[in-house]
Amino acid sequence: MIFSDHLLTFITFLPTAGALLLLLVGGRDEAANNLARYIALGVTLLTAALSLWLWYLFDPSNTGFQFVENYAWIGESIGYRMGVDGISVLFIPLTAVLMPAVILSSFGSITKRVKEYLIVFLVLETFMIGAFATLDLAMFYVFFEGTLIPMFLIIGIWGGARRIQATYKFFFYSFTGTVLMLIAIMAMYWQAGTLDIVKLLTFKFPPEVQTWLWIGFFASFAVKMPMWPFHRWLPEAHVEAPTGGSVILAAILLKLGGYGFIRFSISMFPDASHQFANFVFVLSIAAIIITSLVALVQTDIKKLIAYSSVAHMGFVTMGIFTGNIYGIHGAIFQMISHGIVSAALFFCVGVVYDRMHTREISAYGGLVTPMPRYAVVFMVFTMANVGLPGTSGFVGEFLTMLAAFQANTWVAFFAAFGVILSAAYALWLYRRVIFGAFTKESLKGILDLDRREAIVLVPLVLLTILFGFYPAPILDATAASVNLVAENFANAIGAAPAAVAAATGH
Amino acid sequence: MIQAIVFFPLVGALIAGLLGRIIGHRTSEYITTGLLIGAALLSWIVFAQYWFAPPAAEGAHGAEHAATKVEVMRWIVSGALDLRWVLRVDTLTAVMLVVVTTVSSLVHLYSIGYMADDPHRSRFFAYLSLFTFAMLMLVTADNFLQMFFGWEGVGLASYLLIGFWYTRPSANAAAMKAFVVNRVGDFGFALGIFAAFVVLGHLDFDGAFHAVEANKDLTFRFLSWDLHAMTVVCLLLFMGAMGKSAQFLLHTWLPDAMEGPTPVSALIHAATMVTAGVFMVARFSPLFEASELAMTVVMLVGALTAFFAATVGLVQNDIKRVIAYSTCSQLGYMFVALGAGVYSVGIFHLFTHAFFKALLFLGAGSVIHAMHHEQDMRNMGGLRHKIKWTYYLMIVGTLALTGVGIPGTWLGFAGFFSKDGIIEVAYAAGQSTGYIAFWALVIAAMFTSFYSWRLIHLTFHGKPRGQHHGHGAHAAHDDHAHADHAHDDHAHDDHAHDDHGHHGSAYDNAHESPAVMMVPLFVLAAGAILAGVVFNDLFFGHAEHIEHFFQGSLVVSEELLEAAHGVPIWVKWSATIAMVLGFAAAYQMYIRDPAAPKRLAHANPGLYLFLLNKWYFDELYDRIFVKPALWLGNALWKGFDDMLIDKTITEGLGNRVRDITGKVVKLQSGYLYHYAFAMLIGIAALLTWAIAAGGLLG
């Protein structure tokens, strides 16, 4: 048995092993809590290291699945199947690298039921990585649905005052979506006779069946993204979730939706995707413009960032359903970038929340005076959120809008309003929280970033700027698979490459 | 060498920004300023290579031969898109390099004196250097996207510098306004880039410019209409230029940007960043040549801005705002030249304007410094006795701005050559648009002369009108005072260094600025005097000289230049006559009969308020954009999200479910375990099904 052949299994289940280890930690005193914290940190760091090794070993020129493990499990139809290609590979390091930061950030802020908190997060990590790494549809469903449970507990137990309503909404939306997906999965099995994703990718579903399957998957992924108007659970969930929960929710869980759209909707139901493309464009634009306007008037910092997440995910869905290389490439990049930036923004909110225990924008002001380092870090992520070139936020927006322009100029035209609106809400937030005179009595004595917070945030600053100037590590790793997906999509719908089709001589 | 020019400021910015607290303010200032001066000297060496290029190079025609390119690293590579970080140097870039690094190094030097008392000096110098880096990336860009990077980068630096005194609400508002209004322009710029890529198939300049020939008659479906492709591309790109260069409709941020420290106004909002739009159109001259309509639009927008901004400048009372509107107006001149198709003259005016406008701003800064951060000209007067050198230097700047010189000879200040050149070009462009632009510019020239001399008279001549100065205080407030309620509160350039506690008036305590501030003024004054006469031949001489100088880095039309040189003699004199009229009016109203302005304002209150309030653009935009956006946001949030989706559908549905199931199971119990349990059941159901299905079918 060669270790690297089973790398995906190790990465996926190492956090669960860590969770089991934590069960052995007895006692409720501070020493036991600290032991649990350091075990969790160690496990997540090891997982992160393995995931980076995976990225390193991944061969970007190979369009097929790599690190494949395939064992029969239940009959022939359901197997233990793992493997990654350019579409999925980067989500694993994204998840695994953010987890230590999440664990570390909880050190100061979570003091009740510490062990349980850490166990839940480790289990969640297994589900998330599993969802990206599996090549079996049934397993995908289990992992995908499985993420709900820990997230649900995180909000419900460690959440804020209105956590019950938030969990209800979270559950209601997600469950409704996944039930429809489950039905679609069953239908696929009856059609294709297998749940092996590799085989399903080459199976041609009849167009009229595709339509129904597409709708089933759409229900689930649209809620997960979330797309407008299925987004209402997100602001609530974010507001009530503890910092770590918000970070994982925004950075990783939302990406399951985007990943699903690329892996299943575009790749397996190309005709239906083509048929529904305009519908998705309309919802994407609505997400970009409407939620940006809503973000503009928010009074709660977390809600504002949550709404801005919905707007940014609008660029992702828009890019994916153009079906061309730039769109899908840009969507993946945007998801990775948003994973970093939104995580960082929620960490930033967590920093001031831990100090002041309020998320009201009006409670802050002039923080640059007592917290200059925080102001710099927050500025970098604000600019990345705005999509300033030189930050990672720009590349994805640029590519997806370029793709949209080729597909339909109206779409790009409306999406470009996001460029203006994002600047308006993000800078206004910054102005109200960071700038201004430092006069509020309640804020007196507030401290700048401490060492632990800096260890969490500074690497994210560096990554944001690195990928802004040099996005090649992400774009290169995904290029071959993206080209394949786009090519298959174009072949399936029988269209010429969009670049040529858009311009017509006379 | 080009790497050194571009990256010296970045190195300076990083050192001052990250290590400023460790190495101290003084060291940060010396390092950033030293690196900038180094970059400036290297830029002049680069420029000299083009200036004194041997005629042999003429054989090699076309852009690609003249441009030196240095690849730094890859950027965005996806599909057919291959964008790299490349530093491109050709004549157009070299001119901009000289302008940017020269003014920037002088502003750095000046700031050592001007900002001497500010507690955040190293941050200030880090921003200045960061700005310079972004601007250099903009002018050395070799593809659309890198230009966009520089474009947004200077926007960021501008945002940070306008809001430098972050405790002031007005500064924060102005910073945000500048960024957001620029983003409106960028909306067009971004779409223009997409359109250029779709139409031309390339985003690198050489590739795109080559593709123009084959696509110049292409029609292209934009939104729901089939339009001339190059026109769409150019107009969208021009929207970006309008934002950055504060052209009519997107100009509102520039006057507010004066909230920043004065050296910032000189560097960013006069000499360099705001000229990026002019540079952009010149850089894209091969594209604009393919669209007559776009050229006409450029010209008319320029003419309208030149006229509009000059009218507003007539009545402003804040010394910096007068110069800001003047900048806006002069940028309009540049666009007229571009729109007329004589790009070299537009760049010429950009070049000369950088010197004399930076001189005027830094001179104004010297006045403000001397007056202990008083900016309202109504509280000045008589300063020529107190700050003699600043006075003389401001006079030089004014002479250059108003374009003093004798037509037909080589005698004249910098602005004389470039501005008269533009006016002649506009006339020569002919057709109705050319004549409209011509007359707009001549009238604007008269206004320019008027407000420039008004500024000099109010500031330096007459009697002091300082607030603590006995009877002078009331006179100052009565003048134009009836409009004060409508006028925004003049933010005074006060920061940590606040000398208002002094006894006696600002006038009594007025003092000449230190040498470190005066030296840059003298250098700029030399430029304001000589830049025109020395470089006239390269930018507005014989067509072959211009062509030889620019080596294909922008389009040069022999025909249009011939026409411009051959305009009737009265056209050549028109700007000079307008200038003299403006001077005479200012002399009459502010020296001979100081009560005249008040009388005139009282006689035409509507017009006066209209001008004083800048044609009410801020109020208009607030009503039609800002307020509706906020209202809509609230309505969508409270109405759609909360009421319809949340209360009605989600919770309503939940309630129905509860009603139905309530009697059987208390599902809606609110206990987490129940939900978790339900989910587990779901997964168990799936597994059961899977096992069953697998067993049956597998």
TrEMBL record, chain A:
UniProt family annotation: Belongs to the complex I subunit 4 family.
Query: Keywords of this protein's UniProt record, alphabetized?
Result: Membrane, Transmembrane, Transmembrane helix
Annotated Gene Ontology MF terms? NADH dehydrogenase (ubiquinone) activity; NADH dehydrogenase activity; ubiquinone binding
Record carries keyword Transmembrane? yes
Indicate the transmembrane segments per the record.
Answer: 6-26, 38-58, 78-104, 116-133, 139-158, 170-192, 212-231, 243-264, 276-297, 304-326, 332-353, 374-395, 407-430, 454-472
Quote a single Gene Ontology cellular component term: endomembrane system
Topological category with respect to the lipid bilayer: Multi-pass membrane protein
Main localisation, per the record?
Answer: membrane
For this entry, the protein name equals NADH-quinone oxidoreductase subunit M
From TrEMBL, chain B:
What are the residue boundaries of the NADH-Ubiquinone oxidoreductase (complex I) chain 5 N-terminal domain, all occurrences included?
A: 75-125
Q: Which domain of life is it from?
A: Bacteria
Domain called NADH:quinone oxidoreductase/Mrp antiporter transmembrane: residue spans: 141-439
| Subcellular localization | Endomembrane system; Membrane
The segments labelled Disordered in the record are 467-505
Which portions of the chain have biased composition (kind: Basic and acidic residues)? Answer: 475-502
Please give the GO cellular component terms listed in this UniProt entry.
endomembrane system; membrane
Instruction: Tell me one Pfam family matched here.
Output: Proton_antipo_M
Q: Which GO terms describe its molecular function?
A: NADH dehydrogenase (ubiquinone) activity; NADH dehydrogenase activity
Q: Where are the transmembrane segments?
A: 6-23, 30-52, 91-112, 124-141, 147-166, 187-205, 225-243, 264-282, 294-315, 322-344, 350-370, 391-416, 436-456, 515-535, 570-590, 672-697
Record bears the keyword Iron: no
Q: Which UniProt keywords apply?
A: Membrane, Transmembrane, Transmembrane helix
Q: Which GO terms describe its biological process?
A: ATP synthesis coupled electron transport; electron transport coupled proton transport
The record's annotation in PANTHER family points to: NADH-UBIQUINONE OXIDOREDUCTASE CHAIN 5 (PTHR42829)
Q: What is this protein called?
A: NADH-quinone oxidoreductase subunit L
Identify the taxonomic lineage of the organism of origin: Bacteria, Pseudomonadati, Pseudomonadota, Alphaproteobacteria, Hyphomicrobiales
